[in-house]
Structures are given as C-alpha cells and as structure tokens.
Design goal:
- The protein is of the alpha/beta class and about 200 residues long.
- It has a single domain, classed as Rossmann fold (3-Layer(aba) Sandwich).
- Helices cover about 25% and strands about 30% of the residues.
- The protein has five helices and 13 strands.
- The strands form three sheets. An eight-stranded mixed beta sheet has the order 2-1-3-4-13-12-11-8.
- Strand 11 and strand 12 form a beta hairpin.
- The radius of gyration is 16 Å and the shape is globular.
- The termini are close together.
- The model has no long low-confidence stretch (mean pLDDT about 95).
C-alpha cells in the first residue's frame, strides 16, 4: 500500500498528511498525474471553493485522471470539497461542471431560525447502511468535525452511508461505492473516530 494526497493548490494537506503518518504511512504529495507512480490509495483534502477547485484540477490534468481512477474502482477518499466535486454541479459555482462521478447537486444551507452558516463544529453522522467497509467499528452515530456552507444532495440514495442533520436540513454526510469513500466532515480533525475511518479506508 502507498498513499497519495492530491495537491490542487488548495486544501488541508498538512493535517491529512499528519493523520496518515499517525497511521504509519508516508504519503506522497501529488500535483500532476505523472507523480502518481505506484500509489495505491488517493485522498483529496477539503477546504476550497467548488469552481476554483475544479479549475485547478483541470489545469493540472487531474480532473480527467481522477475520473479514470474512480471508474477503475481504485481507492479514493474525498474530504469536504473533495467530496463535493464528485457531483454534477454546485450552487456555489453556477455553470461549473463537477466530476459527475456521483449524480446530484451541491446545495447551500438556507439561513432560518438563526441557523449559523457555515455549519461548524462537532456533529453526529448517522449510519444508514450499517457497518460498511469504511464505516466498520464506528457505531451508529459517531461524531466528526464539520466546517461547510454547502452540502451534496445525491440523486440516488443507494451510495449514502451516513446522514447528518443541521437545523431542519438532513443531508448525505458520507457516501461509499466500491472503493470510493467521501465525506462532508473532516476526519483528519476528528480525533479517534476520524483516524479509525481513514484506517478502514487504507485496509480495503
């Protein structure tokens, strides 16, 4: 096994790298497809705007590469914006196409009853498919750390493994399909539960 972190010129690379090192990995930072080499597991960290992230991935030749990587069912872990770009589009960047790996759209929280945006802090993620491969050992409603103003809305619920509720809105907190896993929360900031999640991904 060899892990790689996608560097598109943004994202929380350091925290994700530190989490991987805590699990005994020595991750490779990948800024272009020709740097992938013998990497077996890819992670794309969060932090960033949907349209800007897609533009940076396209400019580095990583958008089409990632589509092919996931089409071949190779291990991919998307975090926050690394989750959102899997969808067709986002209200954050009208007219910008996402990777389209998961059908659906990313929507913005609507402020109501004093709901604070962004959604920031600890919240539970309710398992809806039991103990899938990556969710193994986490229980029904582990807590993770979130910071986001937008959330994915999948067209089909079959890929959803966990749901998160914020105010009146319940959204897909995580999806899992084959060896693809992606989540809206930040496992690298989520202490033991986050490390367990990443370890499960690496053990696939």
């Amino acid at each position: 096994m060899k892990t790689g972190i996608i560097d598109y010129g943004g994202g929380n690379l350091r925290s994700v790298a530190n989490a991987l090192r805590a699990l005994g990995q020595d991750p490779v930072i990948i800024a272009s497809p020709d740097q992938v080499g013998d990497v077996t597991h890819l992670l794309l960290p969060g932090q960033g705007e949907f349209g800007d992230t897609m533009a940076r991935l396209e400019a580095r030749g990583l958008a089409s590469f990632l589509k092919h990587w996931m089409a071949a069912d190779r291990p991919y872990f998307g975090i926050c914006v690394g989750y959102q770009i899997l969808f067709d589009s986002s209200e954050e960047a009208p007219g910008v196409a996402g990777l389209g790996v998961v059908s659906g759209k990313v929507r913005r929280f609507q402020s109501e009853d004093g709901l604070k945006i962004p959604h920031m802090g600890w919240n539970s993620a309710m398992a809806v498919r039991g103990e899938t491969e990556v969710w193994y050992g986490l229980g029904v409603d582990p807590y993770f750390y979130y910071i986001h103003s937008y959330f994915p809305e999948p067209t089909c619920q079959d890929d959803v493994v966990a749901q998160t509720t914020y105010g009146a809105q319940t959204f897909a907190g995580a999806v899992e399909r084959g060896r693809l896993f992606a989540c809206q929360f930040h496992p690298e900031k989520s202490q033991d539960a986050g490390l367990r999640l990443i370890r499960n991904f690496l053990d696939r």
